[in-house]
Here is the input.
Amino acid sequence: MSKDHIFREYDIRGIFLTDLDKSTVVSIAYEIGRLLKDQGEDSICIGYDARTHSITLFEWLSLGLGANQIQIYDLGLIPTPVAYFATFDTSLQTRNSIMITGSHNPKEYNGFKITLFGKPFYGKEIQKLKKSLIPFENLPLMQTATIQKTTILQSYIDFLTQHFQSLKNFPHKIAIDCGNGVAGIGIIPVLENLNIDFVALYEKPDGEFPNHHPDPSEEKNLADLKQLMKNQNIPIALAFDGDADRIALLTSHHSYKGDELAILFARQIAREIAPQTPIIIGEVKCSQVMYDECNKLGKSVMYKTGHSNLKVKLKELNASLAAEMSGHIFFNDRYYGYDDAIYAGLRALELFLHSSVQAVEEEIFSLPQLFSTAEEKIPTQEEKKFAVIEELICKLNHPPKDFPPILDLITIDGVRIIFEEGWGLVRASNTTPVLVTRFEAKSKEKLQEYKEQILTLLNT
Ligand SMILES: [Zn+2]
Here is the structure.
């Protein structure tokens, strides 16, 4: 069976054994080892999430890397951001890491988020790796790997404890939901060190995810946390995905979307760095309100969806922050510029040091009210999905007579069509055979009109 589909835009991911079998994983690791060696690198760190097969994948990766005499630092069971942290922290002296994780996907999935030479390894590089793989039976697997255990998790906890001293004796009780992923391993010791009063749900890592799916961007996965907040009268809560690079913030009357968090964080940053002004990066799905609000503070930039894309753009522009609707938030301000939900969660708590919970909610409720659709997915064929977008762009360049006036077409990732009173987005998902749509407008009527017109054009 072809394994092509596991080599995705931002990572390598598939079903354990069906897709990620021993020969495939060892070949991948061998090739990564070869890439490192070619560039004069001799070490990599590897961490893993709580999935039942993560340890087996660690062994297979070690086999392939060891064959290239690459020294392995075992980061142990960690949140994904700790694997990024390891490449920035000076204690290990390596710029390379692999995080074994299925992120927020069902339990049978697993995969690799890879950082090489201090940068995300993604897109074309992953495709090149796929083409260069040597079949397992031809690999010279003579050498065994040297594996050294590390205390990087402790360094990370110490770093955050030090960094967030202002949160000591935080004035509110908070709730967290770790969804039986690995977030608790990172955040609970920090909350304890800072003497923050908290209640944790599903903090024990369990790769079977017995309570709910570990994805806080789905409202239904927040039900238990909301109930807990209500029962115990807790005003603030944080929820994490399976590997803790995706965050949700909840307060008594609101669950914040990624672009709303970006507005709050952008204001926080602008206050702190004044008279300098922040550059804030959003993805194509973010609300126009986010871009408008960030432009009032500094400059906003719209960019492609995807955590690797945003990380690279953040560094390129030396921006302060990047945000995805899904809750991947990247702080370059006071931090290293990768998506760390534990770090973002603690920054979110800082918002309540100088404002009441009600005042923070009011910041969002007082924004211009626009009407929007949730992200909606239209199934399509993998081979056709990008061509469908190209075709749509052609049609939009010569729209039918009754089509609403188009002010601009933004084509950095799919097409975002700007109208007088709103916008519509159609983009091809990089990871699944679907088209993703989102619409936003000043009135319900316009929202409906834009949506209908674009979907009709898409289908003709
Ligand atoms: Zn994740």
In short: The chain has three domains: 4-150, 155-365, 371-459. The chain is about 35% helix and 20% strand. Residues 103-104, 241, 243, 245-246 surround zinc ion (CB under 6 Å).
